[in-house]
């Protein structure tokens, strides 16, 4: 799957950070999270909340949604930056400096900053600068602000000023619908019996589901894009 490089808007941001080109709102099946998705779309376009906080464990699609927000912002000629904090902890917290000049900043895996005083203070200061500049801040973490383990009370308080959404997991029937939805978006025919077979063999988190569908899409070129159960089983056996 092709990746589109993030424009490096700050000299201390490491090179090579990329957005998945497939991480779009159109390819995300919201299930019971429709309100959260709509709020992110409005925020990314510059029409909604100035702070949106997403809470939920790994596999809920938080990264997909933040990257989708960056893609949508670009479509509206808005500048943005996507910051995966798990990958950036080895860099100085000074990377937050100057980001208030952007229209949109997306901070992913914010729980990684908990207990790191310089990083917590850096995010707190960035929030204040972005509020003054009128920019939009999107934050995603494993839990709500007060349960994330931040040691700076003022940071917890500021992150609570916006709207918070606790993402809801998809039920089995919704995962089936998500599979079919994503397959149609890729021009794939996913028979109902094949989708049911997949549901019994794969993890229930969306990244795993969609990564597998990416592999099936590539592999199915030699099978004229027909996702039969025997073919899908052969692909699963190769990646297991």
Unreliable spans: 1-12
User: Any guess at the CATH architecture of the largest domain?
Assistant: 3-Layer(aba) Sandwich
CATH class of the largest domain: Alpha Beta
Query: What percent of the residues sit in helical stretches (DSSP H or I)?
Result: 40-55%
How would you characterize the largest beta sheet? 5 strands, parallel
CATH superfamily membership of the largest domain, which one? P-loop containing nucleotide triphosphate hydrolases
Number of helices: 9
Overall, the morphology is: elongated
The span between the termini is 20 Å
Number of beta strands: 7
Oligomeric description of these chains: single chain
Secondary-structure content class? alpha/beta
Mean pLDDT: 87
Query: How many discrete domains?
Result: 2
**Beta-strand content:** 5-15%
Any overview of this molecule?
The radius of gyration is 19 Å and the shape is elongated. It is of the alpha/beta class and 240 residues long. Helix content is 42%, strand content 13%. It has a 5-stranded parallel beta sheet, with helices on both faces. The protein folds into 2 domains: 3-166, Rossmann fold; 172-239, Helicase, Ruva Protein, domain 3, CATH 1.10.8. It has helices at 34-44, 62-75, 85-88, 117-133, 153-159, 172-185, 192-201, 206-219, 229-239; strands spanning 3-5, 18-20, 51-55, 80-84, 104-108, 136-141, 163-166. The model is unreliable at 1-12 (pLDDT under 50). The longest helix is centred in the middle third of the chain and has 17 residues, at 117-133. The protein contains 9 helices and 7 strands; from the N terminus they run E-E-H-E-H-E-H-E-H-E-H-E-H-H-H-H.
């Amino acid at each position: 799957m092709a990746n589109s490089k993030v424009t490096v808007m700050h000299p201390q941001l490491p090179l090579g950070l990329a957005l998945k080109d497939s991480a779009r709102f159109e390819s995300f099946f919201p299930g019971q999270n429709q309100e959260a998705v709509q709020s992110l779309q409005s925020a990314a376009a510059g029409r909604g909340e100035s702070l949106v906080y997403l809470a939920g464990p790994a596999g809920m699609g938080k990264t997909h949604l933040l990257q989708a927000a960056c893609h949508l912002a670009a479509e509206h000629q808005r500048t943005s930056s996507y910051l995966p904090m798990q990958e950036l902890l080895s860099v100085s917290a000074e990377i937050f400096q100057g980001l208030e000049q952007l229209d949109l900043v997306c901070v992913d895996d914010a729980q990684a900053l908990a207990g790191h005083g310089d990083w917590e203070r850096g995010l707190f200061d960035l929030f204040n600068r972005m509020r003054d500049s009128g920019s939009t801040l999107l934050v995603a973490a494993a839990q709500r602000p007060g349960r994330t383990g931040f040691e700076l009370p003022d940071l917890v308080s500021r992150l609570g000023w916006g709207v918070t959404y606790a993402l809801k997991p998809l039920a089995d029937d919704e995962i089936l619908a998500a599979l079919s939805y994503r397959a149609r978006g890729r021009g794939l025919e996913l028979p109902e019996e094949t989708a049911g077979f997949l549901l019994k063999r794969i993890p229930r988190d969306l990244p795993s589901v969609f990564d597998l569908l990416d592999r099936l899409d590539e592999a199915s070129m030699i099978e004229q894009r027909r996702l039969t159960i025997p073919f899908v089983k052969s692909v699963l056996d190769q990646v297991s």
